[in-house]
Structures are given as structure tokens and as C-alpha cells.
Design a protein that fits this description.
With 87 residues, the chain is mainly alpha-helical. The chain has two helices and two strands; from the N terminus they run E-E-H-H. It has a domain of 54 residues. It has a two-stranded antiparallel ribbon with strand order 1-2.
Length: 87
């Protein structure tokens, strides 16, 4: 959300249909505004999740791997000096 973005100013005429106000804008401007609103919703969701987890003990990477059934990570072997991987 902090990408140097500002909500575009949209030139419009007063358009009222059935007592409701409408605005006309380009699809590009609409998509930019929609992205900013979605980013703001994500920030709020993260804040709520952090508040709910406040003071709770976290998990180490090893505990997380065990809970997910991933086991231990494989060790990478050094490649030979010739550039081949030994296969």
C-alpha cells in the first residue's frame, strides 16, 4: 500500500439516477483503487491476527515441519570441482 500511490482524482459530471450518485472512471483507475482497498483489508486482517496471538508461544521451524509431516530437510551435497553433481 505504500508504493507511492495516491488515489486518482476523477473528473466526472454530476450523474444522478433514481436519487443515487454515480461516478465514471477508467477501468485502470478502478483497478488501482480496488487494489488499495484490498491491501488495506489485508493489513487489518494481519493486525487482528497478531492481536489474537499476542503473548502466545510461537513454533520453531523444526516443530512446524514435524506438524506438517515434512520431516527433516535433505542436506545438499557439494558439487564436484568438475561441475557435475555426481549423478
Amino acid at each position: 500500500m505504500t508504493r507511492g500511490f495516491s488515489i486518482p482524482r476523477v473528473a466526472s459530471s454530476d450523474l444522478r439516477i433514481g436519487g443515487k450518485d454515480f461516478i465514471v472512471m477508467t477501468r485502470k483507475d478502478f483497478l488501482r483503487i480496488q487494489e488499495v482497498l484490498e491491501d488495506a483489508a489485508d493489513v487489518l486482517a494481519i493486525r487482528e491476527a497478531r492481536k489474537a496471538d499476542e503473548g502466545k508461544q510461537g513454533y520453531t521451524i523444526e516443530e512446524t515441519r514435524t506438524m506438517l509431516g515434512l520431516g527433516r530437510p535433505r542436506r545438499r551435497t557439494a558439487r564436484r570441482a568438475s561441475g557435475r553433481d555426481g549423478r
